[in-house]
Amino acid sequence: MRPVVLSKRLQAVAAMVTAGNSVCDVGCDHGFVPIWLVEHGISLRVLAMDVRSGPLSAAGEHIAEHGMESCIETRLSDGLHNYNIGEADTLICAGMGGGLMMRILSEDRDKTASFRELILQPQSEIERFRAGLREMGYQIADEQMIEEDGKFYPMMRIDTELCKLKEVNGSHNVGLNHDDAACTRNNDMLFDDIADNNTLCKLIDRYGGLLLQRKDRTLAAYLRREERIYGEILAKLQTEGLSDVKRGRRYTEVSKLRDECRIAMQIVADCPQT
Description:
Elements: H1 8-15, E1 23-26, H2 32-39, E2 46-50, H3 53-65, E3 72-76, E4 90-96, H4 98-107, H5 109-114, E5 117-122, H6 126-135, E6 140-148, E7 151-159, H7 160-168, H8 180-184, H9 197-207, H10 209-213, H11 217-237, H12 244-267
Parallel strand pairs: 1-2, 1-4, 2-3, 4-5
Antiparallel strand pairs: 5-7, 6-7
Helix pairs in contact: 4-6, 6-9, 11-12
């Protein structure tokens, strides 16, 4: 049996898992990430869960083909409903909408908090998703952005043990990803030129504080694309048959988004184009 080959996006997700951790993959689809984790010796035990019986059955077949039934268990579950606390160290939740992912994390908060780390890759509503993580008290410990087939995928890792420690110690100054007040306490010179705290927090939620701090190349490419798209929308608004009120409202909205995108571009301005 040939080794599993993951897409660039899924390989980046799997590579975020701490070696030696047992894993629960929610929304495992056809089970390729669990198989890859075992093949590469990253995890000795994986729980592959999905709400759909069809993909879960396919996952079971693939697991059997690779002779991994003893270390990968499949389980039908809507989110974490059929997960038992203590069964895994790492939660992987990838390839679904940000709204659905936030529902999964928030519906079973005790179960979510029981994992040592969360590996998350929302496909939509990224800004709202990051804000939701802050509201739940989670700090993003690491994040990446991958470009694959012309699409951009942000992914993040949360160290829940670190978040719990800071909560116990009464420390809320946990960097750019924890709460809105943290933005005003930021001492990094990178953000000193952004006087408006609301704008700063918005940029962090929309584009990722750590990606901005690292001047991430893939984020820089994403921002260039976003600015171009906003410009095209603004140009098209001049010719669309909208009422003056609707056109003006939409023009103001998109202009603001482009202005905020340009602020983010200034932060990562020294990234070479790829």
